[in-house]
Amino acid sequence: MKHERKKTIAPTAHRGGRVENIGPKKQLITWHQGRGGRNIRLKVNGTRESAEKILNKLREEFYAKVHKIRIDHDTTITDLADLVLDDYVSNNYKDLRGAKQHRKFWTELEPSRRADTIDADQLMAWSKEWRAGGLSPARVNRRMSFLLRGFQIACEREILPAKPRWTALKEAPPRSGTRSWEEFVAVRSALPAHAKIPVTIEFWLGTRAGETHALEWPQVRFHHRNETVEIRLKAIDTKTGEQRVAILGGDLYRVLADWHTFTRSAYPHAKTVCHYKGQPLRSIKTAWQTACVRVGLGVFLNPEGQEIGHRHYRGALIHDFRRTAVSNMEDAGISRKVAMSISGHRTDSIFRRYHIVKKSDLEKAGRLLLAHHEQEHGVASAPAPAPEKVFTKCSPIPQIPTNHTGSDRIRRTRKKR
After folding, report:
1. Which of 131, 130, 118, 132 is nearest to 165 (CA)?
2. In degrees, to the nearest 5, what angle opens at C-alpha 96 toward C-alphas 306 and 196?
3. Which of 35, 85, 230, 266 has the most CB atoms less than 10 A away?
4. First and final CA of the chain: distance in angstroms?
């Protein structure tokens, strides 16, 4: 007697779709359309009959090629990260390197997790976990904004129905430190030769690191008769997308002229101004942190770390020179329009934020205010009030005069209190 083989249902048996009860008056529509087709998972609040009607309508619209409902809940975190990266490449956004770093983080976290399973509670749980690990609120917000940008693109393309809600964390106020000429000279003397060039350019002109490293020799023109150097930043390399020009002599001219002579003899094929042995320079972070620690402008919290990133550096940043350059231009009396064209600030509010008010400025303001008062009203001032009369009216303690002429009942009530 032959044994009958147990029949199994093939995966393609449900290609026409099915309805499954997942709770009280909750149905799940599943439609596996086979290889190359779209997989539909749709939750419906109602009876089984209503869910079957919706499934039949979807099936009819699909085969008639008139359906407008696109449901693809199989979208993963990796798919969202790829959408954001493609958006950066298509629109030629500047921070493509940062976008690649964020994509790497999310694809390593949970690459195959479905996007429709991520809600506000999950985002908050990730945020608490990262904050407990020592991540700053600004870094948390950048990570979340990258993922939510992927949700936004998916919603615009009707791949996902909605994106989760997220309230950005309160970030620390922007840095307000500037560096003096003595600090700049000390750090530059401790840097290797190739790292001195971008530091010098950023100290005098306040350029961003990406703009400085993208500078090529055809954009630098020397006027040796006047001992000045003219630097032109291309619009494609600037953050604002606008061309900028700066002309300066003195220390910047001497450093760049000597570097140009050295480059032309040792590495004649070097295209970029900032280079290391003829190759374009990408970053001087390691050299900068080491030099700052050496001259006392920084410290390593974990100096025994094998790599520079594991030593937890705290101290001066290269970006401090951008605020220094803006403050120096303001103190020198350069018009704000010209100064903004040199530093590359598009809005006046951001430019004012980079101009740091020093203690000497406040002392000067106090002297000017006092001089104005003496010029308007003379040197003589009003007599000072008696010390016991100061703040009498606004004192929080009720003042009861001794010659109070109230009734005995009121006085007795106050004594009881």
Report:
1. 118
2. 55
3. 85
4. 106
- Say what the pLDDT of residue 264 is: 93
Query: Contact at 8 Å (CB) between 214 and 272?
Result: yes
Q: How far is CA 396 from CA 290, 389, 406, in A?
A: 56, 14, 22
C-alpha angle 134-136-140 in degrees, rounded to nearest 5: 110
Can you name the residues that pair with 29 across neighbouring β-strands?
Answer: 19, 42
The single-letter code of the amino acid at 281 is L
Q: What is the DSSP letter of 190?
A: H
Token pair 């976290």 is found at 109
Q: Is 325 helix (H, G, I), strand (E, B) or coil?
A: helix
Whether 323 contacts 354, CB under 8 Å: yes
Residues 333 and 42: their CA atoms lie apart, in Å, by 65
Confirm if 211 and 233 have CB atoms less than 8 A apart: yes
